[in-house]
Design brief:
Elements lengths: L10 H32 L10 E2 L4 E2 L22 E10 L5 E9 L19 E10 L2 E2 L3 H7 L17 E3 L6 E3 L4 E8 L6 E10 L4 E5 L3 E3 L1
Length: 222
């Protein structure tokens, strides 16, 4: 007798495989989604610039860090020193000219004492000579002149009681010049147009803060 053998269907196995593949796919997708989610929470954020603001319009305010300046010591100079009465020398030359030498002096207490006042040997002082009339053994100057003596910027002008033109400088030097190491000199003659009479040459020294003056021996124009 012939025995019939029926073939078995494989549908059950196929279903199981499909379910397993679907489960694996879903698990993989869920892992990827979880990875993206964790990455979104743990990803470092770049720092945002912070700007100081003031007022309602929120304009940025620049923050400036200032440096404290370092004080520089200032050395004492002759320009800040009180001036004594300058020494003034009057030399008579064979050709009839006169040499006036002006020497700046340090100030001492009391009235002028050329023997006690020491010579200034530094720069920074301006020297000026002025021709004035003589009266009662003194040069004719007053407070209107002295008010201008303090500021050396006035030395390039003419003082109220200065006689000009009155001096002829033989070496072409100006009436105002720097006291080099505290000294200045002029070689001069009295102007031929000067009226007959007695005169003094006033020697003035100034440093912009202090001034002082002396005068020459009396000069006579014949």
């Amino acid at each position: 007798m012939q025995q019939l053998v029926k073939s078995q269907k494989t549908g059950g196995n196929t279903q199981i495989q499909t379910i397993m593949i679907t489960a694996i796919t879903l698990f993989a997708l869920s892992g990827a989604i979880l990875g993206f989610a964790v990455g979104a929470f743990t990803h470092p954020h770049s720092a945002q610039p912070v700007t100081n603001t003031s007022g309602n319009n929120k304009k940025p305010t620049q923050v400036v860090v200032s440096k404290t300046p370092t004080a520089t010591p200032t050395a004492a100079t002759a320009q800040a020193l009180p001036l004594g009465c300058p020494g003034i020398g009057t030399g008579y030359n064979l050709d009839g000219s006169i040499t006036i030498t002006l020497i700046a002096k340090h100030k001492v207490a009391g009235q002028c004492d050329l023997n006690a006042e020491k010579n200034i040997t530094s720069d920074g002082i301006t020297c000026r000579i002025i021709l004035t009339k003589a009266k009662d053994g003194l040069p004719v100057i007053d407070d209107t002149d002295r008010a201008l003596f303090k500021d050396t910027a006035n030395y390039s002008g003419t003082f109220p009681h200065e006689i000009t033109p009155g001096l002829v400088i033989s070496n072409g030097a100006p009436l105002t010049q720097p006291c080099v190491q505290g000294q200045a000199a002029w070689t001069l003659t009295l102007s031929p147009t000067l009226e007959k009479g007695n005169y003094y040459i006033v020697g003035l020294t100034g440093n912009g803060t202090y001034f002082n003056y002396s005068w020459s021996t009396q000069l006579q124009k014949k």
